[in-house]
Design goal:
Blueprint (H helix, E strand, L loop, with lengths): L1 E10 L8 E8 L2 E6 L6 E6 L4 E4 L1 E3 L7 H4 L4 H4 L3 E6 L33 H11 L4 E4 L1 E2 H8 L9 H16 L4 E5 L10 H14 L2 E5 L7 H15 L3 E3 L13 H12 L4 E5 L5 E4 L11 E6 L8 E2 H8 L3 H8 L2 E5 L4 H8 L4 E3 L13 H16 L5 H8 L1 H6 L16 E4 L20 E6 L2 E5 L2 E2 L20
Parallel strand pairs: 1-4, 1-5, 6-7, 7-8, 9-10, 10-11, 11-12, 12-13, 13-18
Antiparallel strand pairs: 1-2, 2-3, 5-19, 14-17, 15-16, 15-17, 19-20, 20-21, 21-22
Length: about 475
């Protein structure tokens, strides 16, 4: 007898191929059967007519590193159909980390000093297994985290001795299942790292068949040069490259996604490359003086010295204080901000490109988070696929499941196939809608009917069931084998 049978449901299998209508049966943690299963016995039967069944969404770009342990219910992700998160992006990771004080910016996005309890990567994996989060977790190792461990200050290049020590710590993490290295070269804590430093670290990736993911050194005027640096690192290490949250930021950069995507495609003729993006025309991070401008709105989400200024624009704060935007930003730091620094047609061009996966880049510790934390995946399904018609629903699902699973080596996940892990989301294609907004960002999506993680019903009709069945997912094999 099956544990669950979902009858007569539209199956979007994650491959990008045409949908079918079928019965899907679950047994234990696996998909047991797909087809015309008729009246075969099941402990629970669900009428799937009018609904769609897809693989659980894989959020390839998250900053959930500490949250999967501290808040293992993971409702912002579970409520939008996400069953697997990739942590450790943008050069910042919870492990391996040994702090000598407060976490440096932007590692503070992951939490305070007490949240960095994992000096060895194996400590982190054990903590995930003990926490048993509601979603599966795979992890990158952050370059900035490694710099923090081995350098007295981060506003300079590493010496060769320091870089070799970082590489050995990266090797240990890779041996314990990390899927690769990430960098955040745009941030002050890593900007002074030269390309040679990154290449030296990346050499360890070749040995383990891991990948390199990068928040580029620039997403503004120098974006093409920054992309070439990333491709050079990948060629040197002979590993795949994922460009994180690809965008053309800044008013002077709007409209350049055609040439940016051409550069990505051109690199793809010689090496394995890909990118992720989030479905919004505003970014969010710590407040960065280099991004302060009057060309677009900058919305302050938190400020340590001036918490009363949260939920206001930087321009309004500067007017009240009768100072320049830069001076106001300096007084607010450390702080968080949402930058309305992209153009909608650029977002659509990147999102619809065949090389693009979907990642939320949500910041779960921000008191006024960007709406992508709660709404990214339903927004792709509802707004961009159904309402705008940017791509068919099957392609939207592929960008959030099958493509991501192949890129990150998540064997047995990312497709609705017999024998695969039963990570599944049941949703209403006509009604799925993101409800999170910039003014009211902590809102669950509509239309996500049910979510199973490893065969366990974890979210049902708008409510978590309280059952947590996520797992730690170590890297499996050489990621170069199936990367597309």
């Amino acid at each position: 007898m099956y544990d669950t049978l979902i009858a007569q449901v539209r199956v979007l299998d994650g491959s990008g191929g045409p949908e079918t209508v079928a019965d899907v049966a679950l047994a234990g943690d696996r998909i047991a059967a797909i087809g015309a299963l008729g009246g075969r016995p099941a402990a629970r039967r669900i009428d799937g007519r009018g609904l769609a069944l897809a693989p659980g969404f894989i959020d390839v770009h998250t900053h959930d590193d500490t949250n999967v342990i501290r808040t293992p219910g993971m409702l912002p992700k579970l409520s939008q159909g996400v069953t697997t998160v990739i942590v450790g992006n943008c050069g910042i990771s919870a492990s391996p980390v040994t702090l000598r004080g407060d976490p440096p910016d932007p590692m503070n996005l992951l939490g305070g000093p007490d949240d960095f309890r994992y000096p060895a990567f194996a400590d982190y994996t054990r903590a995930i297994e003990q926490a048993r989060p509601a979603v599966n977790v795979a992890a990158l190792v952050g370059h900035t985290a490694l710099r923090n461990n081995h350098m007295d200050r981060l506003d300079r290049p590493a010496t060769r001795r320091e870089a070799l020590a970082m590489r050995e710590q990266l090797r240990d993490a890779l041996a314990h299942g990390a899927i690769g290295l990430s960098t955040g070269l745009a941030y002050a804590s890593a900007f002074e790292a030269d390309t040679a430093e990154v290449k030296l670290l990346a050499e360890a990736l070749d040995e383990f068949g891991a990948l390199y993911a990068t928040h580029l050194r620039s997403e503004f005027a120098a974006i093409l040069e920054a992309m070439q640096e990333a491709f050079d690192v990948g060629l040197h290490a002979r590993v795949p490259v994922v460009v994180s949250h690809l965008k053309c930021a800044g008013a002077g950069n709007w409209g350049r996604t055609k040439e940016v995507l051409f550069a990505l495609e051109n690199a793809g003729r010689m090496q394995r490359v890909g990118c992720d993006c989030y479905p919004y025309s505003a970014s969010s991070s710590t407040l960065d003086l280099k991004q302060v401008t009057d060309e677009f709105d900058i919305f302050i989400t938190w400020s340590a010295p001036h918490p009363e200024q949260a939920r206001r624009t930087l321009a309004a704060i500067a007017r009240d204080w009768n100072v320049s935007l830069t001076e106001a930003a300096s007084r607010l730091q450390p702080a968080g901000a949402v930058y309305h620094n992209m153009r909608e047609d650029d977002v659509r061009r990147v999102l619809s490109h065949p090389l693009t996966m979907v990642g939320s880049d949500g910041l779960p510790n921000d008191p006024m988070p960007h709406p992508r934390l709660w709404g990214a995946f339903p927004r792709v399904l509802g707004h961009y696929s159904r309402d705008v018609g940017l791509f068919p629903l099957a392609e939207a699902v592929h960008k959030m499941t099958g493509l991501s699973a192949r890129r990150y080596g998540l064997a047995g996940r990312g497709q609705v196939r017999e024998g695969y892990h039963a990570d599944l989301v049941l949703f209403d294609p006509a009604g799925v809608t993101d409800r999170a907004t910039f003014a009211d960002p902590v809102r669950a999506a509509d239309g996500i009917e049910a979510v199973w993680v490893n065969g366990v019903l974890s979210y049902d009709h708008g409510q978590p069931t309280g059952l947590r069945a996520g797992r730690w997912l170590p890297r499996q094999g050489d990621l170069r084998a199936d990367f597309r």
